[in-house]
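Page 37, continued from 36.
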């Protein structure tokens, strides 16, 4: 495992499964931006950039898809499932962890972190040279008045103060690898079944891609199905791609 050591001596280096290599960052460095930059330069798949601090956990995984981007975008919900499984295994059993279509993480009904995704191309028919999924998770209470924004929360505010961020990072990568292998062996159907039981906001009003309507769920490729008064619109996952050069 390569990389720099975290600034906080109490934070130990995470241990990842074979074929994954960790690279620690510190200060304000953004692992998602760094992972995109390294991927663009040709780093190996399996690189895990991470920045674990007292108040926030940030990390990003580099993938090298062998399928067109339209199919490879499944890495976003796949990593979301991996995170849900990881936190579910480490947190108190009563904790409710859900995922939004856009990559949001919802804990006990409030927003608590986000998954980002970027790739070397935005053409759904092209096999990307690389694809990166990033995780940003608030750990400590925000500001001097915890709970002053009821629509947002942190792990500590939800009773997860005993969850070690490094262990959560390790578990995220490990559980994501389990689902990656299952997707490779069995296709998208098991992922779709698992994700459908975790998705937040089905049946609620939503706005995406210039359309407003009711979020009905997704198609087999995890495209959002948005129903308005006239028709059902399909919003592909590729609309969630972030610009790594921003």
């Amino acid at each position: 495992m390569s990389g720099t050591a975290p600034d906080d001596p109490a934070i130990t280096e995470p241990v990842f499964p074979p074929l994954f290599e960790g690279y620690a960052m510190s200060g304000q460095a953004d692992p998602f931006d760094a992972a995109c930059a390294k991927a663009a330069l040709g780093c190996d798949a399996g690189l895990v950039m991470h920045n674990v601090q007292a108040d926030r956990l940030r990390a990003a995984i580099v993938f090298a898809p062998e399928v067109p981007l339209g199919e490879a975008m499944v890495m976003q919900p796949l990593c979301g499932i991996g995170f849900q499984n990881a936190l579910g295994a480490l947190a108190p059993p009563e904790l409710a962890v859900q995922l939004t279509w856009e990559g949001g993480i919802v804990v006990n009904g409030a927003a608590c972190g986000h998954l980002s995704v970027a790739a070397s191309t935005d053409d759904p028919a092209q096999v990307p040279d690389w694809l990166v999924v990033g995780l940003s998770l608030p750990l400590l209470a925000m500001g001097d008045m915890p709970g002053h924004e009821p629509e947002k929360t942190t792990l500590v505010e939800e009773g997860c103060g005993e969850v070690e961020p490094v262990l959560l990072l390790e578990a995220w990568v490990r559980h994501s690898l389990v689902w990656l292998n299952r997707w490779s062996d069995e296709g998208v159907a098991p992922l779709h079944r698992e994700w459908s039981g975790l998705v937040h906001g089905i049946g609620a009003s939503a706005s995406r891609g210039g359309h407003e309507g009711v979020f009905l769920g997704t198609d087999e490729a995890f495209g959002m199905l948005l129903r308005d008064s006239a028709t059902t619109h399909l919003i592909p996952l590729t609309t969630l791609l972030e610009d790594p050069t921003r």
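The chain is about 25% helix and 25% strand. Flag for discussion at group meeting. The chain has two domains: 21-200, 202-237.
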